[in-house]
Design a protein that fits this description.
By secondary structure, the chain is of the alpha/beta class. It is built from 18 helices and 24 strands. The chain has a nine-stranded parallel sheet. A six-stranded antiparallel sheet has the order 15-18-19-24-21-22. Strands 16-17-20-23 form a four-stranded antiparallel sheet, with no helix packed on it. The structure holds (2R,3S,4R,5S)-2-(hydroxymethyl)piperidine-3,4,5-triol (DGJ). (2R,3S,4R,5S)-2-(hydroxymethyl)piperidine-3,4,5-triol binds next to loops.
Length: 579
Amino acid sequence: MVKHLEDSVSYLQKSIRIFIVAAIGCAAVAYGQQIPAPHLAKAGAATQLIVAGKPYLALGGELHNSSSSSLDYTEPIWPRLAADHVNTVLASVTWELIEPSEGNFDFTLVDGLIHQARSNGEHIVFLWFASWKNGVSTYPPVWVKTDDARFPRARDESGHALDILSTFSAASRDEDARAFAALMRHIREVDAREQTVIMIQVENESGVLGDTRDYSAAANEAFSKPVPKELMEYLVAHKSTLIPEFRKAWEDAGGKTSGTWEEVFGKGKPKGFAIPVRTLTPPLTQEEHETEWRSLHWPVDEIFMAWNYARYINAVVEAGKAEYNIPMYVNAWLQQRDHAWPGTYPSGGALPQVMDVYHAGAPALDMLSPDLYVPEFDELCARYTREGNPLFIPESAGDARGAANLFTAFGSYNAIGFSPFGVEDAGTSKVDGPLAQAYEFLSQLTPLILAHQASGTIAGVTLDRQHPTRKVVLGKYTMEMSFARGWGAPENPEYAAALIVQTGDDEYLVAGKGLTIIFSATAPGPLTTGLATVEEGVISNGNWISGRRLNGDEIMSGAGLRLAGDAYSMQKVKLYQYR
Ligand code: DGJ
């Protein structure tokens, strides 16, 4: 049995090695080192994060916004996170603290955080809080914030200045880019060899809040001009593969291939229409509250802002990558209930409906990432993995729901990482909490997950009260998952989750808790599927260690697998078919 699992991993590893070697050949070698800098590489069916030359799965956690401004404050957090099996910490680096006066940089905090991470065997994703954080501009240094002649703000329709640096300012863009370049140069100097820092988030939840777009004089002038030809040409060239809701907005407006923004994408928000802070009931009806967050509203305003944020951010990313080229992504505050209209969520952020605009305007970015708190977890993972966008979830819930969603993200959407927000809070990260338990379990499975993501032979499932059963098709077999009942199963379970890994034509490894799994043949026919053998076990140092041979009640008299109880477990099953 040990051998069987090893064979499965080593076969897959051989095939993905080919892809990785090819990717390494292309990737920038880190400044005189033999090992390439962290990068993304295509590996079969997946795109993976490569750190120190090997595929890496980020079992992450994001610190609260202000935690990383004090090394004394973060010092005790690291060992706790390490004990909770968090291998990657997302921590802010702020423009205000690295460049307190113009041109004078202070990297004490950056160095201290890298040192603390290394001492605890952790990796870091730095979050560059600079021009924008949750839409607004509270993180630029005081010398930027107080000079609004040089660094102008966006304005709402009534002309009122928003606390948001306008994207229509070359000065703001260039100063942000210059500071970011200095940061990336410094990280390269202190970390290219060790690769503690593995990715960078650029800005945070960018976009205009308070109105559907920037209405400053410079913005209005740009809005009245033709859509830039770089964007138009991109859309025409990619017409057949555009994101459907985006393409529909364009076609609804006539599908023109040139013209002003409103000629190409339709009319913007009606004059004088005030945008509330949230789309509650009222102004929406109960029904609209449930549905409006899935539709686009005055898409031209959002598309216009997306293009301008993408261009600005691309300049910042390019300046940083010129110094040290590691993966860089932007995160988005999603359109959702209570935030259905642009301006109630940051208009122009990297939302799924404007993914094409970001691909056209910010090609230097490696990924667009959702801050995924909404209950429609699957739906958003699916929307964010279109057009080959790799999935990294920089913010999410870290409770039992978050722990269960992990399985879906890694198993069904080839996520490269998952990172609950506020991970240092006791409720999220205490050693026996749901996230820590899930991470401990998944850290045993990491090599297997990475290998099977590449071969496309993995699926993940989360059950909750809205979805108490789910079906998965993987290879010859279809699996019907339901909450486990009776014999040691919780009375009224809220969540259950599992990864299913296909290890052979008729063999699967199933890892999770709280559910039963019934197998049937995917192709219709006269055959019935039976369980030939079922064995429980654990993976230790990459090896399968057999436990009990399961039969009788433990396999529901042959009907299926049962991973009941509160603790995660794994089973290997061999199937057969009979007439
Ligand atoms: C989303 C932001 O990106 C985070 O920085 C933080 O402000 C959380 N919201 C708070 O819920």
